[in-house]
Amino acid sequence: MNTVTCPPDIPAFSSVCILGLNIHSVDMTAALEAIDYFVRRGTPHHVITADASMLVMAQDDPDLRRIIQNAALVTPDSAGVLWAARRCGRPLRERVSGVEIVENLCALSPERGYRIYFLGAEPGVAQEAARRMQHRYPGARIVGARHGYFAPEEEADVVADIRDSGADIVCVAMGIPRQEKWIDAHRAQLGASVLIGVGGTLDVLSGQVRRAPLWMQRARLEWLWRLCANPRKIRKVMLLPRFVRLVLCATSGRRRSA
Ligand code: UDP
Question: Residue of 89, 113, 152, 181 with fewest CB within 10 Å of its CB?
Fold first, then answer.
């Protein structure tokens, strides 16, 4: 296990290396503390919510790999990642998902003054997610919302809109790996301190997509629920057997010699 050098005013946390990539051993409380620290620092920090499909994609995508390695915080965002960490003998505390991080940040926004921007999903979805969050958490400052289907020639306009909004935290929901690459390419121009890739979060917060029932989440069957809701997810689900194979391969030697 690697110990991550942490800024002095947030608790030190460690990480576990899965398929060559470090996942930080944080629970939700620690992740929110780290994000709060990043906001107060004022310089751009990339936060990644890593699931098994991302770790597999990064095996064949050096750019994605570099981005994950350079992120300020990488949270474990799937049952597969938690399983792999246990196989490595380094269990992680809990799943820290994008949807729960974003909802918590909205809940904290009135008290901490976070200014949050939603970028991504189909037209209308980010706005509806913003409306619901402001209704659920009165005083939450959602300073902008925009869909994620813009053309390359609209890019400068999207960047300017985020910068002019004065957002501290930008939640980018455009799917893996597009959102990670977009954040990496634009982080210096957005004027925000926290840039976080959150996949299908805005679909959930807007009520477009329901999260799996708790029993399915507990039985680690959320992927099946998502697949039924959106059969296009098959490409992502197809990466899971490779994830299992790679992890078993990487950990079986270690287990034998332990
Ligand atoms: N999306 C987007 N722009 C694109 C492609 C996708 O805004 O060019 C959105 C899509 O509408 C959905 C989200 O990105 O809201 C991807 O959600 P998914 O659950 O598939 O994310 P992942 O599983 O990759 O984290």
Answer: 152
Q: Is the CB of 175 under 6 A from ligand 1?
A: yes
Residue 24: exposure state from Cβ atoms within 10 A (0-12, 13-18, ≥19): buried
Ligand 1 pocket, residue 176 CB under 6 Å:
yes
Q: What is the pLDDT of residues 145-188, one digit of tens each?
A: 999 999 999 999 999 999 999 999 999 999 999 999 999 999 99
Q: For residues 250 and 216, what is the distance between their CA atoms, to the nearest angstrom?
A: 28
Does residue 6 belong to any structural domain of this protein? no
Helix or strand run (H / E) with residue 207: none
| CB 203 near ligand 1, within 6 Å | yes
CA 166 to chain centre: 21
158/49 Cα distance (integer angstroms): 23
Atom of ligand 1 nearest to the CA of 226: 19
Question: Is residue 27 a part of any domain in this protein?
Answer: yes
Give backbone dihedrals phi and psi of 84, rounded to 5 degrees, phi first.
-60, -40
Mean pLDDT of 118-133: 98
Pocket test for ligand 1, best of 47, 57, 174 (most atoms within 8 A of CB): 174
Taking the centre of ligand 1 as the mean of its atom positions, its distance from the CA of residue 6, in whole angstroms, is 31
